[in-house]
């Protein structure tokens, strides 16, 4: 995935590890990629956040071995609620649409695990809190 202006774009190719019906991508694998895709928008809007709710509309068949195209953006920021949108395409065919509400949290949210946080997270959200 990469950042282009206010959008996250990227590609993904699923293989047999991500299969559901023979030759098709498992819907849960698509949902995991969608969550990750939408999560990357947090970097663009400079807000640490977590997924509170996400829906995935499965619009077309996702086949293993195809390079699928990813795109996501932030539709609205409403207080701590961050409304994210994303799409997965195979060529011109829409495969999945994602909608999620992420909630803006303080980086200390992740301290509960006891694992050290990446040093780069220290400034994450600085512009949002300014
Ligand atoms: C996400 C980053 C982690 C990974 C980072 C990795 C790299 C870092 C770099 C960048 C990120 C890049 C990629 C991201 C990768 C992956 C993304 C995966 C993301 C996840 O995999 S993340 C794990 C799953 N996720 C959780 O583990 C959340 C568990 N949960 C909670 O921790 C709490 O539940 C919390 C904090 C959500 C809220 O708790 P709270 O006490 O702080 O706030 P409160 O409940 O008061 O709600 C405040 C306002 O949000 C509204 N609100 C709340 N929940 C709502 C819902 N479900 N639907 C609609 N609105 C909702 C309320 O209605 C209120 O709205 P209002 O202010 O208008 O009244």
From TrEMBL:
It is found in: Cell projection, Ruffle membrane; Cytoplasm; Membrane. It comes from the Bacteria. Its main location: membrane. SUPFAM superfamilies: Thioesterase/thiol ester dehydrase-isomerase. Residues 23-93 form the Thioesterase domain. Pfam families: 4HBT. It is a peripheral membrane protein. Its EC number is 3.1.2.2. It catalyses: tetradecanoyl-CoA + H2O = tetradecanoate + CoA + H(+); (9Z)-octadecenoyl-CoA + H2O = (9Z)-octadecenoate + CoA + H(+); dodecanoyl-CoA + H2O = dodecanoate + CoA + H(+); (5Z,8Z,11Z,14Z)-eicosatetraenoyl-CoA + H2O = (5Z,8Z,11Z,14Z)-eicosatetraenoate + CoA + H(+). Keywords: Apoptosis, Cell membrane, Cell projection, Cytoplasm, Fatty acid metabolism, Hydrolase, Lipid metabolism, Membrane, Transit peptide. Belongs to the THEM4/THEM5 thioesterase family. This is Acyl-coenzyme A thioesterase THEM4.
């Amino acid at each position: 995935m990469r950042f282009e202006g206010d959008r996250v774009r990227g590609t993904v190719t699923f293989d047999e590890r991500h299969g559901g019906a023979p030759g098709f991508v498992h819907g849960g694998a698509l949902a995991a990629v969608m969550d990750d895709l939408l999560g990357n928008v947090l970097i663009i809007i400079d807000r640490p956040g977590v997924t509170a709710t996400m829906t995935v509309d499965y619009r077309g068949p996702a086949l293993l071995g195809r390079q699928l195209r990813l795109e996501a953006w932030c539709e609205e920021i409403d207080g701590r609620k961050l409304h994210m949108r994303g799409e997965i395409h195979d060529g011109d065919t829409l495969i999945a649409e994602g909608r999620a509400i992420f909630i803006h949290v303080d980086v200390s949210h992740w301290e509960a695990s006891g694992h050290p946080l990446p040093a780069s997270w220290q400034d994450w959200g600085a512009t949002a809190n300014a």
